[in-house]
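Supplementary Text 2. Reproducibility record for the structural model of the 468-residue chain.

All settings were left at their defaults, and a single model was retained for analysis rather than an ensemble. We include the record here because the model underlies the residue-level annotations in Supplementary Table 4.
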Amino acid sequence: MTTLQLFESVNAFVWGPPLLALLVGTGIYLTIRLGLLQVVRLPLALRYVFGRDDEHHEEGDVSSFAALCTALAATIGTGNIVGVATAVAAGGPGALFWMWVAAFFGMATKYAEGLLAVKYRVTDANGQMSGGPMYYLERGLGSRMLARAFALCGILVAFFGIGTFAQVNAIKDAASLSLGIPPLATAVVLTTTVALVTLGGLRSIARVAEKVVPFMAVFYIIASCAVLVMHLDRIPDAVMVILHSAFNPQAALGGAAGMTVLTAMRAGVARGVFSNESGLGSAPIAAAAARTKSCVRQGLISMTGTFFDTIVICTMTGLVLVVTGVWNDPQLAGAAMTNAAFAAGLESSLGQYAATLGLILFAFTTILGWNYYGERCTEYLFGVRGILPYRLVFIGLVAAGAFVHLELIWVLADIVNGLMAIPNLIGLLGLSGVIIAETRAFFEADAPSVDAPCGSDADNASGACPRA
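Retained model, structure tokens:
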């Protein structure tokens, strides 16, 4: 058995039916308990995201929008471009449907993560806000063992999963295939740029994220819409192929051997989680740094991350792959498939360059976001003295990431993602009563009190959003 085969066997076990059921089941449970909050409260959440920031005097390190952009910087990455193509290659177009399902329920999960992150956050020795699953597992659930397990997995994901290898390898491939840039040159430029930004800490990362994330998302959406407009007549058939393949993949794929509903489901859910990170516990680490009046308010803002990431951007990528027909080419995979789709869709090499630029920007910001996540996990385990050594190791792994084999990268990323999700999901279920109580207290308050700062009479009476 080769190393790759061994890791694939471990991955199949980790991402078997139990974890899929735990991920989606947690989202379903929270959706029911919260009364379809991701539908009913989505307009309010979007208003908070795009509304005026009036929280300069609240506790926290960055604005709520900057915290969301930092989280989106980490989540909108290769999963939205390479990951969708990988899911479609592994599970057929039906994998996209299961990405939608996981994202819909994942919005409730992401809301709960953001809420708990602010509720249980603390101020570290450097005067910065620290929060996330390791803190609500220890301070809320009372389990230091689960907290440490999550933090350790978070460092592994940052080092060997989403944070470095998968992103760097994707940038290297895109730069090499489309722009003819040698891998060594890509590694040098990328490593230098990452070092300049990440050594400046959260505020430096947030400043870059606030500028780059909105630009890259709008740019990619415009490019995708251009392809879809040029193939408008094929969209209804593409949607039917996606739905048919989700429940009958062998028929949709011409009797592809071994293709089952579980295959499509596992590919869609795993790649969807890799993309939007709902249930992983990563985004609440950024949410904890937000200057915010309310843990519920920040939960709503965090929830929109999954909406933007999967419901909007991954859907764009998936539809482009299907309407152009490149998904059915066995010779294409990953970034090559997406590049081919945009080139065919726009009937020009400009399409390939658009996909390449989108991929490079997405992957670069993901590296920055995951550097911060791993740093907070390191600080939890080793204190502030561990931050600088962590940053140096992270930068070194970015430099090495361009020379690691792609297949092994994705399998390793899936494994550590799954291991990271387990303690976080246990925490969300164990603290679901707190989540429901905080949500009810927030929305049952009088209208003028709904946006009142923590410490108001309404909050003191309900216990909502206590300061750590």
